[in-house]
Specification:
By secondary structure, the chain is mainly alpha-helical. About 80% of the residues lie in helices and about 0% in strands. Its main location: membrane.
Length: about 400
């Protein structure tokens, strides 16, 4: 079995187009990519899971809590288009170490924040790891993983995001019960720093950063990227609202304690891990174009269950599972499609553009929901989420039908 360092050396030396199918994906590399994805967004999951404590401890309003998500993902959306080019220029080791180190710094600042001002600044800093995460990890997969295994490895590393949600919702929420919310955030910061040291030791040194600006490979006329970015915009708006307000909904409307309410985020995270791995494995070239629309349809059902949970409390747990299995999995399938359809030399750029749409949705969704939550109108908020998922599904199905007419669906 190759080590993560040996795999990364091969990754740096071997173009994606020449990766041999005989190579075995090293477990160390997959674990490292999964960890990087987890820490790229864990700070925002923590803000959602610790929402009840933050509202009480820092005097945040529900709208301001939503603004933290807007700031973080708005920053990521702005930085994402350049993320792929940056990764191409500096190399995978530098990109992954920077991602994890900046995540540790952002978490440390969140834990030290005396009020909303520094909290928002720290969340903005956390947008940089998000912008680097998908381009860096996708390029690593294309270079080091044989084509038949890429769907499974993509699902595994994308599940790292939901691993972060699980960590925020259960173990770190439990730590917050013992050490306070600041202690829980500082524990996460130390873990991120340890992961940065792991990446530094496991990966070989990158070559000197590339200089100059090479001409970008043009996108093909039938590129799915604009459609996937639109799908991701509305999908992200709905998911971000659930991530940010699910625990607060449990505490304020359903009468749950802070730890139990945080467990809702953990349940969503576990379901998201299973969904991302399973649906990414199912995303063969012939089937993948139809999956985003189908998953968005399931997500609409999940949002309807959240609406019903306002009156029937136990449905909130079923809804949390459904959001993870359907809505959260849509982003992983879209990344599989990017790798299947990107022109040579465009995987990093295309990944970043689709991620930018997703992050823009994350920035826009929570403030709209927060306006309703601040007045106790959670039922209307979940109905808004259902509408966002429905629009995402419509965009995905329109593209899949167009793609079928051009003869792409069903191709090997």
């Amino acid at each position: 079995m190759k080590s993560a360092g040996e795999a990364a050396a091969a990754m740096a030396a071997t173009p994606a187009s020449t990766a041999g199918s005989e190579r075995v994906t090293p477990r160390g590399l997959t674990a490292l990519l999964t960890t990087a994805m987890a820490f790229s967004m864990v700070q925002l999951f923590l803000l959602g899971a610790l929402g009840p404590r933050l509202v009480a401890g820092l005097g945040l309003s529900e709208t301001l809590l939503g603004l933290t998500t807007t700031v973080g993902f708005g920053t990521a959306a702005v930085l994402s288009p350049g993320g792929g080019r940056t990764v191409d220029r500096v190399g995978p080791r530098r990109a992954l170490v920077a991602l994890l180190a900046v995540s540790a710094a952002a978490l440390g600042l969140i834990g030290a924040a005396p009020g909303p001002g520094l909290l928002l600044a720290a969340v903005a800093l956390g947008g940089l790891p998000q912008a680097l995460a998908n381009p860096a990890t996708n390029k690593a997969i294309l270079a080091a993983v044989p084509a038949p295994r890429r769907g499974a490895v993509t699902g595994a590393k994308q599940s790292g995001v939901q691993l972060g949600a699980f960590a925020a919702g259960l173990p770190l929420a439990a730590v917050a019960g013992l050490l306070g919310w600041r202690g829980a955030v500082w524990v996460a910061a130390v873990a991120a720093l340890a992961a940065a040291l792991w990446a530094w030791r496991a990966l070989p040194a990158d070559p000197p950063p590339k200089t100059g600006t090479a001409a970008s490979t043009p996108a093909p006329p039938d590129s799915p990227v604009p459609w996937l970015a639109g799908f991701s915009l509305f999908l992200g708006a709905g998911i971000a609202s659930v991530n940010t307000y699910l625990a607060l909904f449990g505490a304020q409307r359903l009468g749950m304690g802070p730890t139990v309410a945080g467990a809702l985020v953990a349940v969503l995270g576990v379901a998201g891990i299973a969904g991302r791995v399973g649906w990414s494995r199912a995303a063969t070239p012939g089937r993948a174009p139809w999956l985003p629309g189908l998953l968005a349809t399931g997500a609409v059902g999940a949002a309807v269950l959240l609406t019903a949970a306002v009156r029937v409390e136990p449905l909130v747990w079923v809804a949390a599972v459904a959001v993870g299995v359907f809505a959260v999995s849509g982003n992983a399938v879209s990344m599989v499609l990017v790798m299947q359809r990107s022109a040579p030399g465009r995987a990093g750029q295309d990944s970043a553009l689709v991620a930018a749409g997703f992050f823009a949705g994350f920035a826009l969704g929570p403030p709209l929901f927060g306006l309703l939550a601040e007045h106790g109108r959670y039922g209307a908020g979940w109905a808004l989420v259902a509408a966002e998922f429905a629009v995402a599904g419509a965009v995905a199905f329109v593209w899949a039908v167009r793609d079928r007419r051009t003869g792409r669906v069903g191709a090997a």
